[in-house]
Specification:
The chain is of the alpha/beta class and 312 residues long. The protein has helices at 15-27, 43-55, 83-90, 106-109, 136-139, 143-158, 170-182, 212-218, 220-235, 243-255; strands at residues 10-12, 32-37, 58-63, 100-102, 162-166, 188-192, 241-242, 262-269, 279-280, 286-295, 302-311. This is Pantoate--beta-alanine ligase.
Length: 312
């Protein structure tokens, strides 16, 4: 992988370089924010970076396409890699700038090597039990093991005061919050609101696979979830609300969509444990989340889109 030479941002390639940089921040009593990404940066990533720049003295962004969260049948090599564009994006913040970007090689992050076949993997891996097996975890069994492992490695290397995630990947941040709590890691997990297109579609690197008309059709996902949210807000004034009633308000919006799609799940879950809820309790709230596959134009392939809303 060739790195751009003209970027004003300090590029760190090795763990040793990151630790030296972090030590200088520590000696200067400077707080550090980490925004972990797999690249293909969009406005949602930029909102996380902006928040870190506001809340910390120094900000580092990691770009690493993590192989351990891909299954053998998933095309790791097809994941978009746009490092030149990503570097340009990170160089164009107005005012306070990103201080460093961590772009490690696979061998740096997986010194024992890595294969996509879990049964053949060697070395240390991290599993967060109880909140990793359902929803996304049921569809992609090794995904959160891979996410938890790479985030643990990044936290160990960078030791940030704060680490930033978006609300769109709800289960991911629940897993990470439990990881940090249970492994006694001294960092604050910051979860920022989902960034959306003007018509409601949650921003995602996967959106790049869809045409503009397809993206606008896919906005029905947020429309449906928002309908469920409105129903809950109307009926939750001091009262429990049945999860089934929320889902009953959501599904007709999906059913009236003017394109074919596959729904993998639609769930109303506890905001910390992700257990399925029969009732949503005001003050406890819930995460209403879904994953659907929408058709890619001129292709048999379907693009998997995630979204969720928080009920309070």
């Amino acid at each position: 992988m060739t790195l751009p030479s003209s970027s004003p941002i300090r590029v760190l390639r090795t763990i040793q370089q990151v630790r030296q940089w972090r030590l200088s921040c520590l000696l200067n009593r400077e707080s550090v924010g980490l925004v972990p990404t797999m690249g293909a940066l969009h406005a949602g990533h930029c909102s996380l970076v902006s928040q870190s720049l506001k809340e910390n003295d120094r900000t580092v962004v990691s770009i690493f396409v993590n192989p351990s969260q891909f299954a053998p049948h998933e095309d790791l090599e097809a994941y978009p890699r746009t490092l030149d564009t990503d570097m340009e994006t990170l160089s164009n913040f107005k005012g306070k700038q990103v201080d460093a970007i961590f772009v490690p090689k696979i061998s740096e992050m997986y010194p024992s090597g890595i294969t996509l076949d879990v049964n053949k993997q060697k070395g240390a891996f991290v599993s967060v039990l109880g909140c990793s097996e359902q929803l996304e975890g049921a569809q992609r069994p090794q995904f959160f093991r891979g996410v938890a492992t790479i985030v643990t490695k990044l936290l160990n290397v960078v030791t940030p005061d704060q680490i930033y995630f978006g609300q769109k990947d709800a289960q991911q941040y629940v897993v990470i919050k439990n990881l940090v709590k249970d492994l006694l890691i001294n960092t604050n997990v910051r979860v920022m609101p989902t960034s959306r297109e003007s018509y409601g579609l949650a921003l995602s690197s996967r959106n790049a696979y869809l045409s503009d008309p397809a993206k606008k059709r896919a906005a029905v996902i947020y429309e449906a979830l928002h309908t469920g949210e409105e129903y809950y807000n109307k009926h939750s004034q001091g009262n429990q609300v049945k999860s089934s009633e929320i889902i009953e308000r959501i599904m007709p919006i999906f059913n009236e969509a003017d394109f074919e799609f596959e729904m993998e799940y639609l769930a109303v879950s506890h905001p910390e444990s992700l257990e399925n809820l029969e009732y949503v309790e005001p003050g406890v709230g819930a995460i209403v989340s879904t994953a659907i596959r929408v058709p890619k134009e001129n292709s048999d392939e379907k693009i998997r889109l995630l979204d969720n809303i928080l009920l309070k």
